[in-house]
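Support reply, case 0932

Customer input (verbatim):
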Amino acid sequence: MKDYSEYSDSKLINLAVAKDELAFKELVSRHRGWAFGFVIKNVGQKETAWDITQEAFVRVYKNLENFRHDASFNTWFHRILYNLCIDHWRKSGRKIKTEYQDELSWDKKRISPTGDQRRENPEKSTKRREVLELLQQALETLSAQHRNIIILREMEGMSYQKIAKITDCPKGTVMSRLHHARKKIIEFMKKHGYSSSEI
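Our regenerated output:
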């Protein structure tokens, strides 16, 4: 029996193109977690995030034969997710509305691999919660493109080169949008009594 977990993404794609449903199922299982995490940071609502994530996998399946194996599946899939998130905001015309969720935290050092918050005193926890809630509100003030740049760089930790590939724009444009987004977030936080060092 095949151990699909041992196969590379490229191998799984080849098998899926050959109508191996278990190979595609492994691909979904392998990437669904981070994909949902990326989308929910963009749209805020779990139900919508799952819908977009599922639609992304549908697009992946329909376009498997077009995947270039000299490219990274992660980058290719991120681009699909990115475009779906942009489409969502263009169609809805709504702002992101989220309640505080620790899984959206910008301070990953305080979160364990299981998503559990490490112990900290109540005062620090309250302060951190306030900062994170404001950061989420600050994201609401950004355009979809600028919000995505921030998420890809600050939350996903991607390089400028990879973001440029995902967003299909020059590296200079990525850096310019990131600078603008950071500036708007810092201005928003300052208006609410926080210095840039607290962000």
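We compared this against your earlier run and they match. Two observations from our side: The CA atoms of residues 66 and 168 lie 17 Å apart. The helical segments are 9-17, 21-43, 46-62, 73-92, 122-140, 144-155, 160-167, 171-191. Please reopen the case if you see a mismatch on your end.
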